[in-house]
Amino acid sequence: MTAPSLAAAPPALTGRRNLEGNEACALGAIRAGCRFFAGYPITPSSEVAETMARELPKVGGTFIQMEDEIASMGAVIGASMGGVTAMTATSGPGFSLKQENLGYACGAEIPCVIVNVMRGGPSTGMPTRPAQGDILQARWGTHGDHAVIVLAPASVGEAYSETIRAVELSETLRVPVVVLLDEVIGHLTETVDLGAVPETPGIARPFATGPREGFLPYAETADLVPPMPRPGDGYRSHCTGLTHGPDGFPTQNPAVAAAALTRTTDKLVLHRARIESWREQATEDADLLIVAIGISARAARQAVKDLRAEGLKVGLFRPVTLWPFPETPLREAVAAAGTRKVLVPEMNQGQLVLEVERVLAGRAEVAGLSRIDGETLTPDEIAGAAREALK
Amino acid sequence: MEIRFSGSGGQGLLLSARILAAALTEAGLTVAQSNAYEPVSRGGLSRSDLVIGEGEADYPLARRLDVLLILDEAAATVSTGLLTPASLVLCDAERVTTPPRGPFRTLCLPFTETARTLGNPRVTNIVALGALTAQASICPPEQLLAAIVAQTPARFERLNREAFAAGLAMGETEPA
């Protein structure tokens, strides 16, 4: 068995082409070395599975349509424990069903990528209509304190490049990564220049290489990412959802439990610089700053241009890494510009706004702008709210 | 430029938009295509929008339509809010019974009838693409025809060529 690596990946797709967001996720994952996909079709994410079913066999990968969402997540974890880079895709109802197994992956530190294309909810909600109601679920959907990374692409080009980054972060940090799209970005087709997407470094999971004798599968290493034993390499190891110490076996020793749990969350703090990603537009002198993700950020991008043309000092701060939230960069942007007001447009009843309020803690006046009727927030609506706030 | 293809699910609206998007991308433009349809296997309101420009659109969804194509009564009124005095509205003369009227230009053309005469009403969308190409002057007809041939099954090539030519002729007859 060989390590999944970019060496085995097909040549990068290059040049200009029209791609759908969901298709871009699948192609990005394959480019990054993903060779296993298990899923259960669900609108509006089915095209990820459809593309994987078509493309994975061409590169020697495996596609399985499982009997349900829960089993899909289980299969992805199993494949990853077997040493293969694995991904699944789903939408709200399926994302809810996957939470228990996602928690196992968090606890046992199994690399995996979960694409969640958000639709209207709760429950089966509005399957074909867009929403951004899973912002907090993506962070806290599974129970207990846990580390998870959530990336939020706002274009088809980013759906490709951020899924590559999701695989890279997941494999190298041993952490589940959620790629959080909204229905609009998932189903949007855009002309993308894949030649412009930067080449990724070789993505290699840290597999155990040292002596077999006395091997500790969850040893505390300097980078806080314990090398993973690959089946067949002769390492004896134990893997469990129960809280475990360095030897991988369950523990209720308070000191061991606290150290083990803290390491998995400290891991993301230690590697924060590599995980964090955000984009700023016209923030340098912004009286009012808009914070948004996905299609709401695209609407805001237009609104900022329209408002600047009117002479209003408005900027956009867009988290690309949604969780962990880029809190220092946001505080710095607000401080540098002397921003007075912050507007958070989102297609839910106010989720991202809670984090922005927490991060800014009174440094600026924060207000939300919600829409939950299955339609997107438009540039005109955002511009209207911004004008009102600046009055 | 913003173009909407609208009608009833199953009329080939998404395919028409994809064909035009391919032709425009080939011509060096950047396109964003978004679709909306209902959770039914056919029928229901269906539409596909193209936002066309020189680089990635800030906002990839339609705001003010330059061209609106309506192939079924189901879509007759839903897009009126996105029309401006500069908009061009192309309606199917047979299936759209209450075409939008206003300060914009509305043309009702026999897309369905022409497709039926050619032998298959399913090429109504290609007839309409021909008329749209002639009226909106967005892309050389040869480029669009090449995209049609590339994106549709080979066994329908002759029919599609005839449908496109008929639509083009229809659009050229109307004053631009």
UniProtKB/TrEMBL annotation, chain A:
Gene3D superfamilies: 3.40.50.920, 3.40.50.970. The keyword Oxidoreductase applies. Keywords: Oxidoreductase. It holds the Pfam family PFOR_II. The keyword rRNA-binding does not apply. One of its GO terms (molecular function) is oxidoreductase activity. Residues 28-254 form the Pyruvate flavodoxin/ferredoxin oxidoreductase pyrimidine binding domain. Residues 286-382 form the Pyruvate:ferredoxin oxidoreductase core domain. InterPro entries: 2-oxoacid_oxidoreductase, PFOR_II, Pyrv_Fd/Flavodoxin_OxRdtase_N, THDP-binding, Transketo_C/PFOR_II. Coiled coil: none annotated. This is 2-oxoglutarate ferredoxin oxidoreductase alpha subunit. It comes from Rhodovulum kholense.
TrEMBL record, chain B:
Keywords: Oxidoreductase. The keyword Oxidoreductase applies. The keyword Cell wall biogenesis/degradation does not apply. It comes from the Bacteria. One of its GO terms (molecular function) is oxidoreductase activity, acting on the aldehyde or oxo group of donors. Residues 9-168 form the Pyruvate/ketoisovalerate oxidoreductase catalytic domain. This is 2-oxoglutarate ferredoxin oxidoreductase subunit gamma. It comes from Rhodovulum kholense.
